[in-house]
Amino acid sequence: MDLVIARPEGLYCPPGDFYIDPWRPVERAVITHGHGDHARTGNARYLTAEPGAGVLRSRLGADINLQTLAYGERLDHHGVTLSLHPAGHVLGSAQVRLEYQGEVWVASGDYKVEPDATCAPFEPVRCHTFITESTFGLPIYRWPPQAVIFEQINSWWRANRDQGKASVLFCYAFGKAQRILHGLDAGIGPILVHGAVEPLNRVYRDAGVALPETHYAGDFIRSDPLLRQAIVLAPPSAGGSSWMKRFGDYSDAFASGWMRLRGTRRRRGVDRGFVLSDHADWPGLLWAIEQTGAERVMVTHGSVNVLVRYLSERGLDARGFVTEYGDEDDASAEQASP
Ligand SMILES: [Zn+2]
Ligand SMILES: [Zn+2]
């Protein structure tokens, strides 16, 4: 029996009668994490990992009907044993483990395998069937260690400061921004954020994640000399808006896994691209899949066909799963989320 099937409303567990990250409103929704394409409004009840509660309330409203589980805690529902395990993607992100009559399925949600200081690290979970994401499921996607990227970002910021220029870094407001904040060298200058970023910083700080001091960029006027020493974190949607005018002659950059692709930086029209993703790269996906010991792999998001073919050639029962998940590194996904 399949413990998860694709329905028009989203991924559905028939024996448990609940959905995982549904894209249409349902009665019971298990949410892997708070990104806009996975956590949507309108569900009657929500269940998520305890560290993700603040994110969900901040994004979907304080009044949602929300139940939480600690990582690893088990819940029995209609004979299905459900537990949530760290996915290493963003604060509170979880893989959903389902066990029913001896069968074990794990739905990964989004994940990355390199540990970072802003969320619990990815934990491989043994299962018979693994539903994996595949946002960067092509062999060309290999991430440099994040320490190298943070060093690049700090050097770029320092060089701009020495030339009297603000450094504007575009990145997704939830997850990526906080990961970058944690990697910044606050000794270089002031750290400013767009209004879309600061509410998430508050949630991270409340959860005990150490972030450097940040200021609202909107509180600074154009003539303020501090702006020319500052780094500014803003969502991609702020690019080209009148909000940018206060920074005068600035240098800009974009932090995303897509920066690994030649031409992306130019298309974005920014001075620099930093290869930083909250998703697993190709070796990370293959490692995670192997760690589960699963014989059957269902692939969602992104390069489904390439990964399905690769796994099939290695003797796994692999197939694609049609979902409506997007990609938070993409500016259009950014605009679609609150
Ligand atoms: Zn995500
Ligand atoms: Zn996703």
UniProtKB/TrEMBL annotation:
One of its GO terms (molecular function) is exonuclease activity. It is an enzyme of class 3 (hydrolase). The keyword Hydrolase applies. Keywords: Exonuclease, Hydrolase, Ligase, Nuclease. It comes from the Bacteria. SUPFAM superfamilies: Metallo-hydrolase/oxidoreductase (SSF56281). The keyword Nuclease applies. Its EC number is 3.1.-.-. InterPro entries: MBL, RibonucZ/Hydroxyglut_hydro, Xnuc_lig_assoc. This is Ligase-associated DNA damage response exonuclease. It comes from Pseudomonas urmiensis. The lineage of its organism: Bacteria, Pseudomonadati, Pseudomonadota, Gammaproteobacteria, Pseudomonadales.
